[in-house]
Each structure stands twice: as C-alpha cells, then as structure tokens.
Amino acid sequence: NERIQFKTPIAQFGAIKNKLAEMATKTFCSSAATYRAASDIQNKINELKASGLSHQEAELKGVEEFAIECALLKVYGSEAIQFVADEGIQIFGGMGFSEDTPMESAWRDARIARIYEGTNEINRLLSVSMLLKRALKGQIDLMTPAMAVANDLMAIPSFETPDYSVLFAEEKEILAKLKKAFLMIAGSAVQKFTTKLAEQQQLVMAAAEMMIEIYIAESAILKVEKLVSKTSEAACEAQIAIAKLNLFNAVEKVGTKGKEALYSFTEGDEQRMMLMGLKRFTKYTNFPNVINLRKTIADKVIEENKYCF
User: What is the tally of structural domains in the chain?
Assistant: First the structure.
C-alpha cells in the first residue's frame, strides 16, 4: 500500500495481488495444519493418560502416534516460510536485499529451517517410510483400501450430477479422490518393490509430496468449516477462498507428482489404466475461478493492511 509505481500503490496490481494471495494461503494452511496436529497429539496424550499411562509415557506415545504428520508439517511449514520470505523480497524489489528492510533477515532465517531438525529431503523419505513400517507391522491397513481403489478403476464411473449446494461438498469429494490417487500409487509401488521401496528415493519423495498436499488441503478445509460454524459464510469469504485456492494447487501438484511416480515404475496397459485413474481422481466437476479466488484473498489482506487470518 505504501510503495507507488505509475502513481498507483503496487498493491493494486494484479501481479502483486497474486503474490499476496499465495503468501496468505500458504501461511493460513500451515497454521491450520499445525494446530490440527497439535490438537490431535494433545487428545491422544489425554486418552493415554486416562488409560493409566504416566504423563511421560503418554507424551512419548502421543507424539509418536502423529510422527508422520509432524514430519510432513516440518517440510510444508519450512518451505511455506521460505516461499513467503522470497515473495516478500520480490515485492520490496531491490531494497529487499538491504538490512534496513525486514525481508533480508526473514529470508536468511527461513533458509536454515529446511536443513535443521532433519533436512526436508530426509523428512519426506521418513514420512513414507514410517507409513510403510506401520503397514507392515499391521498397525494400519494400507493394502485393503489400496485394493478397493484398484477395483474402482475397473468400475464404470458415475455420470449422475452430484449436489454441491453445501459448502465444500465438491472439495470434500475431491479430497477423497486425492486419497484414492495416493493409495493407488502407494499400493502398487509396495506390491512391486515390497521392502525395497525405500531404495526408490525419488519415487518415495513423490509419494510424500502427495501426502503433504492432501493433509494440508484437508486441514485448511476443516479449519474454515469451524470458522464458518462460529460466524457465517459471508464473514469467512476470504478464508473459504483460501481453502479452495489451496485445494486447486494441491490437485495440480498431486496430478504432477502422481504421473512422475507412475512413469517411474509402470508401463504398458497397467500404466495406461493407472494414468486414467489418476486423471479421474484429480478431476473437478466445477473448476474454481482461481484468479477471482486470489483477488478475494488479496483484497482482504490489502484492506486490513496486514495478515488478518
């Protein structure tokens, strides 16, 4: 709002609104997912303490229960702050590199976050590795839903027009389909590589990227639903736009990483069938107007002159 170019505050330019909207979206989604995981951990600790465990034992087991989510959040959060700081420098222009502005130190401080507490590459690998270990130990059932998705691929898709009149009805349907996309790829990869899947690091990292996007997108929708329940849809217009914009970005990324994974270990008819499934699982019925979504978010930030979510 302060910087003027061509006699106009740069906040009014579409290119800047794009940046502000994406920055606000990543910040909101990072916060939503972090609070979700923290709440889940605390609830688990309380449950374990009520069952007779000591406070220390309950804390250890409670955190361990959500170690995968924590690994995913470390990756997403550190990369979100790096993105926000980088875009902040871009908005400041050349003076963004000066120590007189807040962005120089913000960018430098953000960069180390992708290295400490386990590099983001290691956390990506660990998240999938922990999931597979739990599946192999029988702690979670990964293969049954994966096989159900495989059966879905053989079924004729429904051509009925669904009712999307309720807030986030289509978005929740898309989330369910994104989970199917992950299960389809993860299940097939486990069948092919079994215990040697961990050696396929680029494939594992693609799967981790899909997990991150799905968890973050679901967290944002859950957070906005809670906000709407306490106020109204009209009062949460910008937050609703954030959840929808983030899901759109997630669908694009899941589709890209899914194809990257499938190209690496499938071929022939199997590959064609799974690519068709991935396309079905990453398809909107009603595509959102992402430019309008970004404008709604940015206009709110500009009006408040601060991060206001």
Answer: 2
